[in-house]
Design a protein that fits this description.
alpha/beta; Rossmann fold; Dihydrodipicolinate Reductase, domain 2; 2 domains; 9-stranded mixed sheet; NAD(P)-bd_dom_sf; nucleotide binding
């Protein structure tokens, strides 16, 4: 099998990660070269053992290049993708794929006309914590799930340089928000019916430094999505409630717990506890006999890893693991979150 030759356009943090880790360890594709507008990054690519190109046109004119990975600031994806597709290259694009739904539609129209493949690298579908929650949901390990909380917290502000600027597509909704929203839509696989949100600007940037969104799915599942960059105490990465249990994953180290009813015993009423200046049964922990704790077990993805899938889509007509209509749904949802935050209103989705 001959590997697919990729050129990485944009050799910053994510482009370098693709070259060294994701593509570098892959049996299906290889990093054939690198292009970046900055000479110092091209020099770093050469030090890392990759050939470099002086211009994007040089990349697109090379017949040995089969595919392009776009890992540039968000506002440049649209132009680079369309040029690459028209030059006969297949394209993988980092996310958020574009600055608007209309820009994505432009790209997809060109991909159809040129009969080239275009896929977005939604890599966090393969995160271990997400795969575990997906298993809980699909196997009803907590019973039927009715509420999902998904959040990431940090205390270092907005990273990098261009991520602070609106014109480049900066801000946390277009950064981490893309990941968390894609995970939820891939998990629940139901249309969003209702959106309410609030964006944070406490750090003084022109773009959001965090956000909170409340989503209601067509099947009634409610989701709380939160990204924060000024949180010195983190809340759990995942908190999932079902009719027969609760699951919590604290962080990417997969610490946490699952508590479910112990159905082998007769009901034992909880013992009242002192709560402040009063007593409560309602908020008392359940009797030890009534619940049991289950281990959190790692789960293998039941779908192929990204670059293998992309190779098979191009060469074997396989089904994309990240479908473009799913990516479009994420952009539609992001627009609704921005609208809700701006208007202070609940957005009813069609």
């Amino acid at each position: 099998m001959e590997k697919m030759n990729f050129v990485i356009v944009g050799y910053g943090g994510m482009g370098g990660y693709h070259a060294r880790e994701l593509i570098g360890e892959n049996d299906y594709v290889q990093t054939y070269g690198v292009y970046d507008i900055k000479e110092e990054r091209r020099e770093q690519a050469r030090k890392d053992g990759f050939q470099t190109y002086d211009t994007l046109n040089d990349v697109l004119a090379d017949d040995d290049v089969e595919a392009i990975l776009i890992a540039t600031p968000n506002n440049s994806h649209h132009e680079i993708a369309i040029k690459s597709l028209r030059a006969g290259k297949h394209v993988v694009c980092e996310k958020p794929v574009t600055m608007s739904v209309a820009e994505l539609d432009d790209i997809l129209a060109v991909a159809e006309t040129t009969q080239r493949q275009f896929m977005v690298h939604q890599n966090r579908r393969w995160d271990n914590d997400f795969l575990i929650v997906r298993e809980w949901y699909q196997q009803q390990m907590l019973g039927e799930v009715f509420q999902i909380e998904s959040r990431v917290h940090g205390a270092n502000g907005i990273p990098g340089d261009w991520r602070h600027l609106k014109e480049y597509g900066g801000g946390m909704l277009l950064d981490w928000g893309v990941h968390l929203l894609d995970q939820l839509l891939f998990l629940v696989d139901q249309p969003i019916k209702r959106v309410y949100s609030d964006l944070s600007y406490v750090l003084g940037d022109e773009v959001d430094d965090g956000f909170t969104a409340w989503l209601t799915f067509g099947n009634g599942v409610k989701a709380h999505v939160e990204v924060g960059t000024s949180n010195f105490v983190k809340l759990p990465r995942w908190y999932v409630k079902g009719y027969s249990g609760t699951g919590q994953i604290n962080d990417w180290d997969l610490s946490g717990k699952i508590i479910v009813p112990n159905e082998t015993t007769e009901r034992v009423a909880p013992t009242p506890i002192k709560a402040g200046q009063g007593l409560t049964k309602t908020m008392a922990p359940p009797s030890e006999e009534m619940t049991k704790e289950l281990p959190i077990l790692e789960v293998e993805a039941d779908f192929p890893e990204f670059y293998r899938n992309f190779y098979e889509v191009v060469h074997q007509n396989a089904t994309p693991v990240v479908k473009n209509d799913e990516v479009r749904q994420v952009l539609v949802l992001i627009d609704a979150i921005f609208e809700s935050a701006m208007t202070g209103k609940i957005i009813e989705m069609n």
